[in-house]
Specification:
The structure is a single chain. The chain is an alpha+beta fold. It folds into 3 domains: about 170 residues, Beta-Lactamase (2-Layer Sandwich); about 120 residues, Beta-Lactamase (2-Layer Sandwich); about 100 residues, Arc Repressor Mutant, subunit A, CATH 1.10.10. The strands form 3 sheets. It has a 5-stranded antiparallel β-sheet with strand order 2-1-5-4-3, with helices on one face. The protein has a 5-stranded antiparallel β-sheet with strand order 7-6-12-11-10, with helices on both faces. A hairpin with a 3-residue loop joins β4 and β5. The C terminus is likely disordered.
Length: about 400
């Protein structure tokens, strides 16, 4: 019961943070305490812009944040594997590689251990071909490696974190004065509806009124908000019905309700409860129990490296070795980064050559480049090997020109 009470309070705080980004740091502190860690972060990775950033962070010193960008993003052995986990699935180091192997990596020795950490527990909150958002809680040595309790508590919170992040994206992460929620959100691109406990629309923004007028996606029946699709209609009504209760009782199936627009265009709706916390001010002001956001959905396409792995039937370890060899320059350097022997790297390279029908590292570079090509805006940059990696990006190639010359010397 104490755990559920803690979870309920934390979930309420998370939904408040969806409307006020300034609240994320204390929310992450409470999340770390709840899950059993000393630090936590919301990280966003953009493949097109080739950046990774700690959008909100608690417990990570600024110098370590900076050093991650400057050096250690490309040395993080778990980086490429993150894209392979489904959204909301909780994972930790041992789901990616043996922990003993992780402890031998440069990344662990120089970035993880100096902060007193030993492990992490994480989950993707959103993922597309061009970006992902992840929540990660870092475990201290005194906390031990990720255990069943950490996974269970993280799993309890992750769906609500996801809802908050998706809604934050819908309102472009702008700070909102909750007492004036409807007025503030009138100008956003997403359709917004404030509804009461019975589903009656008490306020709609301009985009919302236009969507109702068109009548292809949502409709108003006797003043109640509903979806034109029968299955979606039931899910939305159910999500609204429970929004007036405790945050923890919200049906997580209603986090992202799929809607079908004209010409089968995909739309997504998110229901934010207004029944507690700072959000309650908006609910009282407008007699609303929930805010419903609706916007076009992004296509859920495979990340290029995930597509590459599927095409050549590469194992996660083989893909890690492939990216390490490309990013850091050769067998010796890859072995140091991954914390494994040179013989092991050579064994995996032999399998990579066999699966890709190649015999030189330069050929592997070209294969990776061909899968990443849709995201490259400059052919000259492609010839240069993508430039210098300064952020977490499995499609990047650090110091590519130098490595290209090294790889052209042949198989090592």
């Amino acid at each position: 019961m104490a755990e559920l009470e803690q979870a309920s309070t934390l979930i309420g705080d998370i939904y408040d943070a969806a409307l006020d980004p300034a609240l994320w740091s204390p929310v992450l502190q409470r999340l770390a305490n709840f899950v059993g860690g000393r630090a936590a972060a919301l990280c966003a990775k953009d493949v097109v812009r080739e950046t990774v950033r700690f959008v909100h962070v608690y417990g990570v010193e600024p110098e370590f944040v900076q050093s991650y960008f400057d050096r250690y993003a490309s040395l993080d052995p778990s980086a490429i594997s993150r894209f392979f986990f489904p959204v909301e699935q909780v994972f930790s180091t041992t789901d990616i590689m043996p922990h003993e192997e992780f402890r031998e990596t440069i990344f662990f020795k120089e970035w993880v251990r100096p902060q007193g950490w030993i492990d992490f527990v994480s989950a993707l909150l959103a993922k597309s071909q061009v970006k992902y958002v992840e929540c990660v809680v870092f475990r201290h040595e005194s906390d031990g490696t990720t255990d069943g309790k950490a996974r269970r508590t993280m799993k309890l919170i992750v769906p609500h974190l996801r809802r908050a992040v998706l809604i934050s994206e819908a309102i472009d992460l702008r700070k909102v004065e909750t007492a004036r929620l409807a007025d503030t959100l009138d100008g956003i691109a997403a359709a917004l509806f404030l509804v009461d406990a019975d589903g009656h629309i008490v306020h709609a923004n301009v985009s919302g009124h236009q969507m109702l007028k068109e009548g292809h996606i949502l409709r108003s029946v006797s003043g109640k908000l509903g979806a034109c699709n029968q299955n979606s209609d039931h899910t939305i009504r159910q999500a609204i019905a429970v929004a007036g209760g405790d945050d923890i009782k919200i049906d997580v199936k209603g986090i992202a309700v799929s809607l079908v627009g004209p010409n089968s265009e995909p739309y997504i709706s998110h229901v934010l409860p207004l029944s507690s916390g700072a959000r309650r001010e908006a609910g009282v002001a407008y007699s609303a129990v929930a805010a419903v956001f609706v916007r076009k959905a992004m296509l859920d396409l495979l990340h290029p490296m995930e597509a590459l792995a599927n095409f050549y039937k590469l194992t996660p370890t083989e893909l890690r070795v492939l990216m390490a060899v490309i990013q850091v320059g050769g067998v010796l350097q890859a072995a140091d980064v991954l914390g494994i022997s040179q013989a092991t790297v050579k064994t995996h390279l032999s399998r990579l050559f066999e699966k890709t029908s190649t015999n030189r590292q330069a050929d592997l570079v070209r294969i990776v480049a061909s899968f990443a090509t849709p995201f490259i805006t400059s052919s000259a940059r492609l010839r240069q090997g993508f430039g210098t990696v300064q952020a977490l990006n499995p499609g990047d190639h650090a110091n590519g020109q130098r490595r290209k010359h090294q790889n052209d010397n042949g198989r090592q």
